[in-house]
Amino acid sequence: MKFSSKIFSTELDTRIIAVHSPKIRNRIRFALISDLHSSRYGDGQQELIDAVRAGKIDAVLYAGDIFDSRQSDTPTLELLSGLSEYPSFFVTGNHEMKNTDADKNRAAARSFGICVLQGNETSVEINSQRITVCGVDDIYDSEEEFLSQIENVRKPLNDDFRIFILHNPEIVSVYEKVTADLFVCGHVHGGQWRLPFINRGLVSPRRTLFPKYSSGLYGIGNAKLIVSRGLSKTSTRIPRIFNRPEIIFIDVCPSHQNI
To answer: Could you tell me the CA-to-CA distances from 196 to 112, 192, 193, 199, 242 in Å, in that order?
Structure first.
């Protein structure tokens, strides 16, 4: 029974992933939240809110499918409200883009002071240093509009550390056209089933076996890519196996600094 509960566990997991850059003087910690799909974690989403606050973060990155096209918006709104004290950045995923109320989802995020990115960028000061954050809508609704947004954020790197928030890592060749120091995303749900010992995800939402990018830290040229396993518990027909839902804390550190 204990082994079975471990296989199918949906207990919240948190982990820290560090990236280093000569552009950074003081460590900045981001919470990467993806693929909530309006799943509930306690009354008022208190379990998630407490976990994020315990991480002593500086800002939140929402990498899509926070809302769900088939679920109530209430759990998502509770989370966005509960974390509204932090500088936060949001892009849509395929479920927001499926939803005829995608504009309503964006408006809801903005109502909590969250910066919604649609083929644009913003610069913010965190821990006395400038960070640039850019992002695009998911490709689901319109490939033409998606590629137009990609073109809008194709800018040369400068002295600011540049983060690109996206949803789907399966079309990473498109994102490689955008210059960034760090890409963050979700979508793949960790491959839904994680294979023990080799730590690989089994299947992508496109039904591709062994997706290349499904969980954790990867290199893309000179940049880094971080993929979250996401937080969905209830919106998929296939259960998570050896694949606990997660929040990733991303430590962006000076080149010489360890965690």
So the answer is: 40, 13, 9, 5, 7
Residue 98, Cβ density class (10 Å: 0-12 exposed, 13-18 middle, ≥19 buried): middle
Matching residue, tokens 């040229």: 221
The residue type of 184 is V
| Cβ atoms < 10 Å from Cβ of 223 | 19
pLDDT in tens, 133-161: 999 998 876 778 888 998 899 888 899 99
Contact 131, 157 (CB under 8 A): no
pTM of the prediction? 0.93
Beta partners for 134?
A: 121, 164
> ∠214-215-220 over CA atoms, to 5°?
75
What are the domain boundaries of the chain?
Answer: 2-254
Residues contacting residue 158 through CB under 8 Å, at least 6 positions apart: 132
The domain 2-254 belongs to what CATH superfamily? Answer: Metallo-dependent phosphatases (3.60.21.10)
Dump pLDDT digits (tens) for 209-220: 778 899 999 998
